[in-house]
Amino acid sequence: MISLFIFLLILGLLIIVHEFGHFILAKRLGVKVEQFSLGFGPKILSKKKNETQYIISAIPLGGYVKLAGDNLEEYKGSAEEYLSKPPRKRLAIIVCGPLLNYLLGFLCFWLIFFVGYPNLATKVGALVDGYGAQAAGIRVGDKVVAIDGQKVYFWEEMQKIIQRKKDAAKVQLSILRDNQEYTIGVEIKEKKIDDQLGQKRSVGLLGISPGDEIIQERHNPAESFLLSLNKTWELTALTYKALWRIIRGKLSVRESMAGPLGIFLITSKAADLGIIAVLHLIAVLSVSLAIFNLLPLPLLDGGHVVLLAVEKIRGKLLSLKAERIITQVGFSIIISLAVLVTYNDILRIFGDKIAKFFK
What we know:
This protein has about 350 residues and is an alpha+beta fold. The protein has helices spanning about 1-30, 85-115, 130-135, 155-165, 220-245, 255, 260-275, 275-295, 300-315, 320-355; strands at about 35-50, 50-65, 115-120, 125, 145, 150, 170-175, 180-185, 190-195, 200-205, 210, 215. The strands form five sheets. Strands 6-5-7-8 form a four-stranded antiparallel beta sheet. A two-stranded antiparallel sheet has the order 1-2. The chain has a two-stranded antiparallel sheet with strand order 3-12. A hairpin with a 5-residue loop joins strand 9 and strand 10 (about 200-205).
């Protein structure tokens, strides 16, 4: 029950932040906002304040902001209507939703880096047969403190350094053993592994696994700011690379995309791990939501940007017939995507049980 509450809370936060971006800029640019809804479908709660009706709807898997005159059927030519504004102002209203999601993701990452998060220390937990560490005499319990004179404090940074040294024959490891520091030469073994996108890449390996020592990694505000920018950029680049590989058929949709069920399970695990894990999940989901909404698909923000570009080129609005067709196509695409990711979630989570049931 707590997991469900946290799931709905996170989902609600992401939706409100996104729609608030559209809402606040529309207001500032003089566009009347008729409705601000959290969720879709039948209304559960509704309250009107000034010119806007605020709604909580039954299906909490999205939301919307209804602007006056945002479609040709309703447009009357009033100055407070959306379609009365020049394309650059409409573009700003569209983009402000994803922009606030990006900002939320960035702030969550900044808070994580600043407050501190658990990270594995460089203590050796196990040795792998046939690799350089075992042959060089590295022992379980040794703590790596430097690689070729470069200080290391966390397992992840050590791993990245070693993986990049795939072409080096040997590295000099400075280790702590029984409060004494030793320097040991260890041969690097190159191996091909699958990365996050399912691509084969060569990395350098020592043949060691981490121990169970956990230390808190913290940074000052300025460092946290730069690390957050870098993390947001890395996540954006990784997501677009994944989407491109999906389009090319190089990456499985089933393994790379999660729907509501999958996100609920991820949220449950994050809730068990604590507030830092929840903040990380919010950051990742918020940036992902921004990216998804900027895809050039009808009904999404990215689709509206494309239509604005077409309008700018043509020098006039699309026809009512074209608008209706685009809306219908967009609705069909969104529903199809929702069905696909939900189907993938069911197969991924319950696939084994379903297979046993039909045996």
